[in-house]
Amino acid sequence: MFITRDTNPFLIVPNDSKEYTRASAHRLGLNLKERLVDAEWEPATDRLEVYDEKGNLLFTHRAFLDIIRESETSFNALHLRRLAISSEEVYPVDAEGMEKKGQFIHFNRESYLVNPHDFAGIPFGSIMHDPIVFQTVFKNGMPIVYTPEYQKPFKGPDGVDVIDPHVWAPDNQIARYFDALGVKGYNWIAMELWKERLKLKGQSLLPDDVLSKE
């Protein structure tokens, strides 16, 4: 989700997902004026076909398909959208959370602003130098965006101790998006198979020089 960088920010509402965006904002307790923007969908390269038990085709769907194997095997049908707004005009807001005893618990994960092509050929486990990163808290219906500060021990993928809080470790969805955008070095199937092989061997995904020795 995005908000503008104005003193009194607007909620960015894509025209193709108005109700979804408004529902996300409502869960976070946001009470902002809206700025509607157009969204352009990137042509999908994969086709998902769903059949019933008798082999009858139920429906097809064009998307960027992604396979998850880590905790359980599942598929994601992903889409890429280009919003008619500059990244310099907005802050990204992590809207993910979970319901617990009737209350929405906000995860407040970091949100990074990146140019995908800046990461062309960057190996998994590299240090991200001077990244643009934000976190957000909410008070009285307003978002408060800040740049987080970190203290040792820094935690990397799989909770291992690392020497820097910003380690480039794209998950399966980011790898799939980068592959779809044609970013050099991101064959998502090869990357996921590489991860699986290392995990089956009990090896770390990170290079030794980013692991903390303290």
* SSE order: EEHEEEEEEEEEEEEEEHH
Cα distance spanning the termini: 37 Å
Strand fraction = 25-35%
In terms of structural class, how would the helical and strand content be classed?
A: alpha+beta
Task: Give the strand order of the largest sheet, numbering strands 1, 2, ... along the chain.
Answer: 5-6-7
Query: What's the domain count?
Result: 1
What does the radius of gyration come to?
19 Å
Q: Could you list the spans in which at least 5 consecutive residues all have pLDDT below 50?
A: none
| Sheet of most strands | 3 strands, antiparallel
Count up the helices: 3
Could you give the count of β-strands? 16
**Global geometry:** globular
Instruction: Provide the residue-averaged pLDDT.
Output: 92
Percent helix, as a range, is 10-25%
Give descriptors for this structure.
3 helices, globular, 16 strands, three-stranded antiparallel sheet, about 15% helix, alpha+beta, about 210 residues
Q: What's the helix and strand layout?
A:
Layout: E1 2-4, E2 10-14, H1 18-27, E3 33-37, E4 39-41, E5 46-51, E6 57-68, E7 74-78, E8 81-83, E9 90-92, E10 97-100, E11 103-106, E12 111-113, E13 132-139, E14 142-146, E15 154-155, E16 161-162, H2 172-180, H3 188-200
Parallel strand pairs: 2-3
Antiparallel strand pairs: 1-9, 4-8, 5-6, 6-7, 10-11, 12-13, 13-14, 15-16
Helix pairs in contact: 2-3
Concise synopsis of the structure shown:
With 214 residues, the chain is of the alpha+beta class.
